[in-house]
Structure formats: C-alpha cells, structure tokens
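User: hey, got a sec? need Probable allantoicase folded
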Amino acid sequence: MTAFTRLPDLALRTYGGAVVAANDESFAERENLIRPGRPEFRPHTFGAKGQVYDGWETRRRREPGHDWAIVRLGMPGVVRGVVVDTAWFTGNYPPYASVEACAVAGHPSVAELQAAEWTEIVPRSPIAGDTENAFGVQDPRRYTHVRLNIHPDGGVARLRVHGEVVPDLSVWEGMAVDLAALHNGGLVTACSDEFYSSPNNVIAPGLARHQAEGWETARRRDGGNDWLVVRLGVPGTVRVAELDTTNLVHNSPAAAALSGLDARVSAPDDPSAWFELLPRTRLQPDTPHRFRLPAPRPATHVRLDIYPDGGLARLRLHGDPDHGSPPA
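Assistant: Yep! Here you go:
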C-alpha cells in the first residue's frame, strides 16, 4: 500500500497491544480493532446486536460529539503511519476519523490516560467505507498509546499503527537481552526473498504457531542461498543464537550461518567489514537450535544466511547490550 506499512504494526494484539478503553461498543467489540489478519465477513449472520462484524462498531449517535477508543501500543515507538481499515463497513462507517497519541511511563490506568497530554498525529480526515484508509505521520516523538476518534459514530474493522520500535531497556541494565527482538527495537532491513511471509516474523514476540508465522522463501533454482539482515535494537555482543525451525518439516534449510557488522566503525556496504559469528552449521527440521557463539564481537547488524532456501520460525540473538550507543 505505502512504504510505512512495511514497518511493524506497533498496536498488534500478538505484539502485546490492547484496546484499554472505548466510549461505546454497542454493536461490535473494541478488541477487534487490533486483531491480526484481514477482517472477515459472513453475510446474514445476525446476533442479538444485529449483523456480526469483525471490527469495532458503535451505536447511532443522537447527540453531539464523537466516539473513541484508546489503544496501548504493544511496542512503543515512533509512529510513521496509520491505517484506518473500514473493511466490510459500507452503510455504517464513520465519514471522518482522527488519531491522537501520548507517551505515559509505567502502567497507567484509563483515568490517567484520559488526563494525559494528547497530540494529534492524524487530523480529522475524510475516510471511505470498505477501504484501507492510510495516513502518513511526520511526528518524530516516541509514543506509548494512541486514541482513534471516529466522527460521529460507526464501524472500523482494524486500526494499524506502523512505526519504528523505541524500547525502554533500562529495566534490563546489566543483564543479557535478545538484541534482535522486534519489541527491543530490532528490524529486518534487507532480505533476499519473502515470497511466502515477512522476514520480520522471525524476530516477532512469542513462538510461531504454524509455518506462516515465520519467514519462508520460494524454492531457489539458481544455486545461490537466501539471507536476511537484522539491525539490532541496540548495539551489543551476541553470545547465544537461537535458530528455530519449528513447524518447518519439509521446507527447513539444510544449514545456516551468522555474520556480524559494527556499523559504528565500518561501512555496511564493505563486504570485508562483515565477520563470522556462527560458521555454516547443519540444521534439523522442526527443531529449536541453540548455539553458543565461538567468537563473540560487538555488532550493530547481523546477517543470517540459510542454505539453500526454506524457512525459519524464529531468530533470537541473546547478548550484552551497549546502552551507550544507538543502532546505526
């Protein structure tokens, strides 16, 4: 759709997002706003509240005002774009929407959030029904919550809040962390192939429930191999690598290797700047592998090579963060 939609959805339920409050959900529950996957619809499925919708739908407003829902971002960060998806809402979508954001430390209550200072990141804008309405955001600040306002009422299937994760790693001071984790600010910045699924899946939270929740490439016929590059959430020294092929039974790689780069001292486009972290090592299908790296070195980026192709459920790179230096 747009460039920002390639960034992770900071609000996604599977990434820890939650709809913590809404002023109304008479026809359809607020929790649907951040569910993973495309909205579904089955016509002529009526419940006690009317037609069943895979989205959030409020009553017909008979007084001045507008409806709203507050979402806690599962991964706080800089919002680069918002998608207000009105899929399947045709005669009952809101004609306008706006989005606000705030940054509140800790674990605020709904009352504390309502009293917080909110910043408008998407002004009141017209939206269309049964459409993924996309809005770019230019605000460079880090936010923890967003508030979707619909004017005056109606239904929204999904709210996607795409951006760059900016974690607070202070709680892990002096401890090892997963330097590659999406929720710690890691991001796949380059990839040879993403035919079946997104490479960012390999650094997503939790375990993959099936092979579509990992990274899987097309079958190679050229004699080469597939690869991806992860920008670590914070520079650090990787000491243990996890390469998980769970759920990949007949399409796992035969082998894998890891190499590192410290972009603070070397140019990323210099092939000689990359150093070996894990030599080419045999992998088994449907297996979580753990390797202690033989020669750990500080890095800002790690490249995973798989031979020749296939899929990986998760990549974890555990090590010691360098809290004094941001990623390149």
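Quick note: The helical segments are 110-114. Let me know if you need anything else on Probable allantoicase.
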